[in-house]
Amino acid sequence: MKLSWKALWRYVLKQNHLPLKLAVSILLVGFSFRLLFSHQSNGFSDVTDTPDIEKTISPEPPVSVDFYEDSDQNSPVSVDSSEDRDQIPQRENCDLFTGDWIPNPGGPVYTNESCHLIESHQNCMKNGRPDTGYLYWRWNPRDCELPQFDSEKFLELMRNKVWALIGDSISRNHVQSLLCLLSKVEPAVEVYHDAEYRSRRWHFFSYNFTISVIWSPFLAKAAIFENNDGVSTSEIELQLDKLDETWTDLYQGLDYVIFSSGKWFIKTAIYYENDTILGCHYCPKRNLTELGFNFAYRKVLKNMFDFIISSNHKGMVFFRTTTPDHFENGEWFSGGTCQRTTPVKEGEFELNELIKILRDVELEEFEKAAVDASRKGVNLKLLDLMQLSLLRPDGHPGPYRHFYPFAKDKNAKVINDCLHWCLPGPIDSWNDLIMEMVLSV
Fold it and tell me: Which residues, 6+ apart, have CB-to-CB distance to 381 below 8 Å?
């Protein structure tokens, strides 16, 4: 099934980004922008151990994300997220998501030996990754100090509370990071998993604190026909007007929620509304209307935000933006790798147009939802991790998603994972940001 870029771009939205020069000039004249900050049980089994690397039913590889390569990789690296500034939260003139990766001589709080909750494909140290420099950086906002995650303080704050991370395998990756940090104070006890270990729940008994990961890659009801290697036998069937009951049935019992989605929408799919086929994304062999993944993503996000705002839920809700991958010299299916060992500088990587579309949809729908959420007293927050994550191509497992991949053959051909994050690794800094946002309410 050959991908037609002409067909793809028929539904691609035209991008509109503020010029970097404008952002620089604004900084030089010293103006400070006031960001428009948006307001922001349990029953569930395993996300597959493979990365979110998937094949469609076609013999040709699916649409994927490309990044530009650059070789300059030196000390503190920075990002200016001047575009979309109006949607990024701010605390007292401090934009938590605009900052620098700075050296952190202390290194990670945990290791693969001290935390036994790391799944094998993200356990880069155990799998033989030879370099360790990627472990010695931390995220630092430009206008304020960001304290390191305090596990004991967090657990005290979350006494008698319930958290859930709802989304795809990046949510699973994130929950492992959080659990590893918290387990330095008290071991997390798994109290539930579904049959496939895709959704799981842990409890910290001394604090009566529960944290779950809920597998819902589309956030909406979907029939997915993939095996554990991501090989599809049929198109995904996605119900655009029906949210996934896996999480909606539990929602009212959750005190804190982190929603995320995105990349799964790029897959080939048939779209339904009112139990009737509405159209599809990339299905040239079917006589269906090509609607585009941005159409579907926008519909689902709107439905999700409408549900959140009308639910009378009193907890805190985060919407995490989609995060980049960092394949270079190809994609996962064509020999793409991520071999960098330090953060990159601003401008070395550009987002692929498909990811830009996902991001634009997210920010546009969040901005609209934030207005209604504020009016109705719903605590809705944007967790915008795209830009800070873009600067960390060194933080992925790469070939070390496999156990000592080059032990028998130094030239072995192995699939790289340049999407998920090593544990420990850059993803641990996400928890610093979350704790600061919780404390700043």
Answer: 38, 39, 40, 89, 316, 317, 318, 319, 437
- Residue 365, pLDDT above cutoff 90: yes
Q: Looking at the 3D structure of the chain, how many domains does it have?
A: 1
**What is the number of other CB atoms lying within 10 angstroms of the CB of residue 440?**
13
Nearest-angstrom CA–CA distance, 306 and 222 = 19
Distance CA 331, CA 64 (A): 7
Active site residues: 169, 417, 420
The C-alpha angle 96, 99, 105, rounded to 5 degrees, equals 105
Q: How far apart are CA 353 and CA 293, in angstroms?
A: 13
Q: pLDDT tens-digit profile of 401-419?
A: 999 999 999 999 999 999 9
Distance CA 113, CA 96 (A): 31
Assess if residue 93 is contained within a domain: yes
What is the extent of the structural domain holding 74?
A: 37-439
User: What SS3 state is found at 223?
Assistant: strand
Residue 30 included in any domain: no
341: nearest Cα among 124, 146, 140, 139: 124
Strands 200-204 and 209-215: antiparallel
Look at residue 23 and tell me if it is in a domain: no
Q: Which tokens is 382 given? A: 């944007």
Closest listed residue to residue 256, CA positions, set 210, 206, 200: 210
Asked whether residue 156 is domain-assigned, the answer is yes
Q: Say which amino acid occupies 268.
A: T
Three-state DSSP at 187 gives coil
Distance CA 401, CA 25 (A): 43
The residues facing 273 across adjacent strands are: 276
Tokens of 154: 């967090």
Give tens-digit pLDDT for 45-67. Answer: 333 333 333 333 333 333 333 32
Higher pLDDT, 277 or 77: 277
